[in-house]
Amino acid sequence: MRAYGIIRNDSAVIAFLINAACIVMYEQVQENANVEIYARMAYMDTMTGLGNRTVSVTESAVMSS
Domain ranges in the chain? Predict the structure, then answer.
């Protein structure tokens, strides 16, 4: 009977580690998605979809050089 208890405890630990790894992977995917959204928002007006002041300043600097 003792061996069964050890196996059951080992599978609980393995299940916990798999769950923790899945949570970490999910959070990383969410963070990457948020970074893309924030990068897009830095250069685009969310209401109109047009470039904002940052884009205008960058384009005028490129055109003037």
Answer: 2-64
